[in-house]
Amino acid sequence: xxxxxxxxxxxxxxxVENKYDLIVFGSLNMDYVGYVDKLPEPGETxxxxxxxxxxxxKAANQVITAAKLTATTAMVGRVGDDHIGTVMKNELAQxxxxxxxxxxxxxxxxxxxxxxxxxxxxxxxxxxxxxxxILTEEDVTHSLDKMKRAEGVVLQLEMDKQVGEYTIQMASxxxxxxxxxxxxxxxxxxxxxxxVDLLIVNEPESSFLSGMDVNSVDSAKEAxxxxxxIGIDNIVIxxxxxxxxxxxxxxxxxxxxxxxxxxxxxxxxxxxxxxxxFFWIRSGDLDISVKNAVNVAALSVTKQGAxxxxxxxxxxxxxxx
Length: 321
Ligand code: ADP
Hints:
alpha/beta; four-stranded mixed sheet; globular; binds adenosine-5'-diphosphate
């Protein structure tokens, strides 16, 4: 990494007293991960070389990333009244995330994800939404007090589309900074999409939004331009090992990720979202934020699992030293 990264990282950082830096809405899953030589083709059975069970889910990964980087955070979501639900809530509490609004739903399973990871760290994932699917508009309304106290509102779309749109609308009415990770791809109302302050998407998601094939730095630079016509000021496209391209105002720029020994990319995109959200809310500078987030996420792919691979601020600072 460049020598000036640490200087850039600390520039403009301010701690927000008696408030949440971020409130994150969305999914919690338990990940069942098999490590294979190669991902199975349709109809093929593949034996895994090793197997892990670990906590994950897009929103849980994002909020814990931010918390480990020292953000003050709260989460809104749902788990089932099963053992996995208890484990997930403990995981949030241990990371210092306020989990009061992660509700326990009787008679339903906590969400799960069945993940296969190949030798290059590529993955394929099947999820069961479980309790994540019954997050309601009322749940969002119940978090009003916490949302009022948050600087930024983060969400993805592993939830009912209307609930996602409602969350964005409510955050906008409160004048909050809205950070949307449009994952998985959901065709949300374009008027609601315009309310987003920072949009973060990966290659397939940005291809969907731009109508072009995004598979390189150059194509991502074209795509951010097209996507900005929706009326969003800040857009980031993540490009796996190639890092990320962003657009803020008239600036379009690429930051590569550090070259690392890739072990498992599960949760890398979520790690990026949690990190860029934290740095952006604290510094207000998207350039600094993307520069740091590509490397926080690069560090996460050097370890197995989703939440288990997330670095602390101290580990990240050591990495860029
Ligand atoms: P998603 O999982 O949402 O598709 P990406 O694959 O684009 O997200 O990865 C998100 C971020 O994780 C990248 O911008 C990069 O910082 C980091 N990352 C992912 N894969 C690698 C890799 N092979 N080497 C280094 N960093 C990586």
